[in-house]
Design goal:
This protein is of the alpha/beta class. Helix content is about 30%, strand content about 20%. Strand 5, helix 6 and strand 6 form a beta-alpha-beta unit.
């Protein structure tokens, strides 16, 4: 299930109910901390680190086979770079006959867009710059395609302390197709304590602090800054009455 960007107020009622009534709650330790106040005191909690997603999926399936009500949590939405796929794959691989329900959540793209204004009202593409599971060559190919097609582009997992090159390379690709004055939104820790929202340009995008908790929204040819908000035109004629 998706817990949204982080604050409990962004949890859907359905997701909250599933967590509150779960016998077992499983997730990345940072996400467990975000929802700790609503986990039942008698619930079993299984947390871990990034990179242990398959292990957590196997633990979830094993607990479900014990007839436990298991909540596997992802930040944002479980089907957007989340745990939904790997849980379904593990259950099928292990031939586990357990019911699996996927509960959606507010993903970082739409949460960041709301903080910035209305940059995603038309077609857009979401690309993760993490090459842990996807070869960089494929990420680069997708960036070229999305930029050439004039999609608004949302960048997930843009940069970490030890991984600076992918964002710099993505920036160079985007500059091949977009004006350097294209509006860019940078949202750090959206929906959490310390949230920071910046609207800048493609030219200046790399001048700001960017980390793994940052979501970047790169506008397209119709995106403008209106009253300090990013707005992508959908084509309405607002001048006629």
């Amino acid at each position: 299930m998706g817990i949204g960007p982080g604050a409990l107020e962004h949890l859907t009622p359905k997701a909250r109910q599933a967590i509150e009534t779960a016998d077992v709650v499983i997730g990345y330790r940072t996400y467990i901390k975000l929802i700790q106040p609503i986990i039942a005191s008698n619930a079993e909690v299984i947390s871990g680190f990034m990179g242990q997603e398959v292990e957590r999926a196997r633990a979830a399936v094993a607990k479900a086979l014990e007839n436990k009500h298991v909540a596997v949590i992802s930040s944002g939405d479980p089907g957007v770079y989340g745990m939904a796929g790997v849980v379904l794959e593990v259950a099928a691989h292990e031939k586990a006959d357990v019911p699996i329900k996927i509960i959606p959540g507010v993903t970082a793209a739409t949460a960041a867009a709301a903080a910035l204004g209305a940059p995603l009202v038309g077609d857009f593409a979401v690309v993760s710059l993490s090459d842990l599971l996807t070869p960089w060559e494929l990420i680069e190919k997708r960036l070229h395609a999305a930029a050439k097609a004039d999609f608004v582009i949302v960048l997930y997992n843009p940069q970490s302390q030890g991984r600076k090159e992918p964002l710099a390379r993505a920036h160079q690709i985007l500059l091949q197709y977009r004006s350097c004055d294209t509006p860019v939104g940078i949202v750090k820790a959206v929906g959490r304590d310390g949230e920071k929202v910046i609207i800048t340009t493609l030219r200046s995008m790399l001048d700001y602090e960017i980390d793994m908790s940052t979501t970047i929204v790169v506008g397209n040819s119709t995106t403008r800054v209106i009253n300090e908000r990013m707005v992508t035109s959908r084509g309405y004629n607002i001048r006629e009455r």
